[in-house]
Design brief:
The structure is a homodimer.
Chain A: E1 9-14, H1 18-27, E2 33-39, E3 44-51, H2 53-62, H3 70-77, E4 83-87, H4 95-103, E5 107-110, H5 113-116, H6 120-132, E6 137-138, H7 150-158, E7 163-169, H8 172-182, H9 187-196, H10 205-208, H11 211-223, E8 233-235, H12 241-244, H13 249-271, E9 275-283, E10 286-294, E11 308-314, E12 322-326, H14 331-350
Parallel strand pairs in A: 1-2, 1-4, 4-5, 5-6, 8-10
Antiparallel strand pairs in A: 2-3, 7-9, 7-11, 9-10, 11-12
Helix pairs in contact in A: 1-2, 1-14, 4-6, 8-9, 9-13
């Protein structure tokens, strides 16, 4: 037990990976938020009086393994003040759990793109169930980590602005690779450097396919009311298609084999005064992600290194698009954004 | 009476100028928000059942003139669901009214910089009283209109990031003038064009002195915990000091007299490969506003026209600062930002 005064919010944290452990470290400095449970794929630890966030991971590791049955867990945390389910896993199928949470009066904060980029019916059910049960459903970190992207878009929409187009460089990895190519690097060297810097997944193909960026396009487009899903996104991968099929060491052979054709494309773009980028685009109901060459005056051209960027072109921002940019990936930034979502719910609950 | 179901929030709007009339137009499309009163300097109109926002301004104009005694007005609106005082005036001394509102359980949303950039004691009392009475106090539009600046900074601070430096181009007028000078215009031509485009106050000296930008520096620095006030800001005006003292037509003579020295400075900067800007800077407890020449790689260099821009340099955004930019001035954008603040309170109140 950490505190005797009433908690501003009570958290059940799902997942203890990179984001989860950073989130627990942030919670340790915040007395008003009570950690009432942690869950991973093998065990559950619950304590209504509050767990010490610093010790939660090791407590969980020592817990008796049992496949978590989360229905009773949700029942139990629902009776705590301002209960919030926090999903920092990357697991599929969590949407069913979110629906159960809303029905029990539990708020949901998630960093997990999958439930938000699944079928449109799933997404609509999540939004409608949260609304019907008057619960918060926040997922700022599913696009650009802690950068204010989702909330900014929601504010545009609900204050009645008309968003004509969204453009973003929303993958730290592909942003980095684009800048490396523009600087003269070969594709294979750039990917190897990105992997060594920890930017890519263990299998870099997951980044290079553009699927992750396509999920973000879906999440943004749905805020505009478009009834779209992943299959509606026109996806051009960052690399030639045959590279994506290559496994293990064969990936590096395939990347080297693609070096010349990519080099030629980039040199051609630079020769025409353009800057290579990998952009997410939402315009009307049309969603696309892929390599694009932009003029130096384009806001994406100024983005350096692995930074993310998003521009909203709207009626009210006709003269100058609303642009947000900065570091938009990584465990600490994602945990910070999740934490900000949690604090916003705790703040709102104080106003009652 | 516009609606029979319970309102999500009840608004008392102070001020019916450019921002106020745009706000009323936005409210007209939003059934859940009930306009329970409008106030200007000469009259008050109250209607617990809800006023038609489209007609509110003319109703106010027809109301019997009486100097508003706002204590009883606050008492009356306090009993409505989720009461919010919305200040879209630019009047001084409104802080006393906000304190009275908080004490009665009324939330406050303001676009008025003056109460936020007054004495530090006033600011601290506002924050503390809002907190003690568990009321929201939102003022996003006091810096950069509807751009997500204040909220973004608040999220950085309360999630435990350390903000080392804030830089911003936070005056639409001075941003425009900087870009005109960089493009070869003379000072006097640029100011005349800004006035003709409606960017400046009727007396352009109010913009050129830097006082408005200095207020924004104070508002941002206080979010970082710095106990500062306007007198602590090192202010270098946009124009030579003698221009600021000139009244009426003499202003234009004074501007023309300053053309050559300003031209010389800008040409010198451009010759050194730099870009002229007018920046707000907060670094540690040091606040400054003034003309600055930045290298082309600086994020402010890419800002075009009258757009605003702010960059946060923090521990977590060490590699890539968090940058927000876009149109950051004007009645409609300010009204939109006020509206978003109101909707955030209504949303939070639903979670109770």
């Amino acid at each position: 037990m950490r505190t005797e005064h009433e908690a501003a919010a009570s958290l059940l944290v799902l997942g203890k990976g990179t984001v989860g452990s950073q989130l627990l470290a942030l919670l340790a400095d915040h007395e008003e938020l009570r950690l009432v449970g942690v869950v991973d794929s093998r065990a559950v630890v619950l304590e209504d009086a509050g767990l010490d966030p610093r010790a939660a991971t090791s407590t969980l590791a020592q817990a008796e393994p049992r496949p978590p049955d989360l229905g009773p867990v949700l029942d139990r945390i629902a009776s705590n003040p301002v209960p919030i389910l926090v999903d920092v896993t990357a697991a599929p199928g969590m949407d069913r759990l979110y629906l159960e949470a809303f029905r029990r009066g539990i708020h949901v904060v998630t960093a997990n793109k999958k439930p938000l980029a699944g079928t449109y019916a799933t997404w609509a059910a999540l939004r409608e169930t949260a609304r019907a049960h008057r619960r918060a459903f926040r997922y700022e970190t599913t696009v650009g980590a802690a950068l204010p992207v989702v909330r900014t878009l929601q504010d545009l929409v609900r204050t009645g602005d008309r968003v004509h187009r969204i453009e973003g460089s929303l993958s730290g990895t592909l942003g980095y690779l684009s800048n490396e190519l523009a600087g003269g690097s070969t594709l294979s060297d750039a990917v190897r450097r990105a992997r060594d810097l920890g930017f890519t997944e263990p299998h870099p193909g997951d980044d290079l396919s553009g699927t992750d960026a396509a999920r973000k396009a879906v999440i943004l487009a749905r805020e505009l009311g478009h009834e779209v899903a992943l299959a509606d996104v026109e996806v051009a991968p960052f690399v030639p298609a045959d590279v994506l099929g290559a496994e293990g060491d064969r990936l590096w052979d395939a990347l080297r084999a693609a070096d010349d054709v990519v080099r030629q494309r980039v040199e051609d773009e630079i020769g025409r005064g353009l800057v290579p980028r990998y952009l997410v685009r939402v315009e009307g109901g049309h969603l696309s992600v892929g390599p694009v060459a932009v003029p130096p005056s384009h806001p994406a051209a100024a983005v350096t290194g692995s930074a993310s960027f998003v521009a909203f072109y709207t009626d009210r921002y006709a003269a100058h698009p609303l642009v947000v940019q900065g570091a938009g990936a990584g465990g600490l930034l994602t945990a910070s954004g999740v934490f900000a979502d949690v604090l916003a719910i705790a703040e709102g609950a104080r106003w009652a």
